Amino acid sequence: MEEQRGVRIQQATLSQREQIISLDESVIGSRCRAEQIRQGVADGLVYIITVKEEIAAFGLLSSHFYGRHFLELLIVKQEHRRKGLGKMLLRVIQEQCETESLFTSTNASNLPMQKLLEKCGFERCGWIDQLDEDDPEIVYCHQLKDLTNVQHDAELTIDSSVQIRPLTWGQLGAVNNKPNQPFLVIGRVKAAFADGQWMWTEEMFPTPYEKRYPDEQLDYSHYINSPDRCVFLAYLDRQCVGQIRLKRNWNRYGLIEDISVAKDYRNRGIGKQLLASAIEWAKAGGMPGLMLETQDINLVACRFYEKCGFQLGGVDVMLYGNLAEKNEQALFWYMQFGATKGDI
What we know:
Layout: E1 7-11, H1 17-28, H2 34-42, E2 46-51, E3 54-65, E4 68-76, H3 85-96, E5 101-107, H4 111-119, E6 123-128, E7 137-143, E8 163-166, H5 172-175, E9 183-194, E10 197-211, E11 229-236, E12 239-248, E13 254-261, H6 270-284, E14 289-295, H7 299-307, E15 311-316, E16 330-336
Parallel strand pairs: 4-5, 13-14
Antiparallel strand pairs: 1-2, 1-10, 2-3, 3-4, 5-7, 6-7, 8-11, 9-10, 11-12, 12-13, 14-16, 15-16
Helix pairs in contact: 1-2
């Protein structure tokens, strides 16, 4: 669709405050929330979607709801509604939330908002009377998980029948000469370095497409019974459906050389279980954290890494310069054990 071209999601900047206030005014007919929006932008709690450089939607978080984040506002410009922008923005806000749960509320009469919240995993948890006459406020909650401090245990097991096993001699046939499977490209990461840290936004592509990287020929025997290398395999119904390949890197980090899940078994929590085993392996080996490299066009993977506690630590714009992927940028992600966001 033409309206989807040039769609970007980002944290609002101070220079965009008045545009956001004007959008809010165009929807509610008042500037009564102007100061609330200004403060939210200053606190880094406002996220926006731009379409062709125009702000089409914004969301405002609060961090003062009993120690939890509360989504105070989710506004989409009238002409951009029913195009998925609300769901897109809500998903980003969920991923940015740093508390164990995210709350929000809407009027009982606002059926479209209720439908959106429930589609995005929110559950009703209460209501408040006497805020608006004959139109109670319904309170919603979305429970979030923090993977960074969790070991490989039952809490990560979304599909309880999946088994994670270290590679052994008898399993070499499960990994040798297996072709890479395609992944979906829906957009790219737009990274920028400011105030000593990397920040990133998303640029969505109008037409998603699939990409598959060339197959690798590796000698997996070096990863068996080694203190500095390891491969974990995910098994389901006696089939190997995923793997994560690791080694101790020169900078003491545990380097994730590859993590993959078979296409038909994705979105079942297998990647999280593999990553949990990698965390356990790296900690047992005295490593300070994990690191990995991926491409800026692998947006789905980047979302996954950030949600699991990785931070963007660097960008290399020349790494693929002599290859077919010369227009892609290499992104380096880090998870520091015991670190908090912004420590890198």
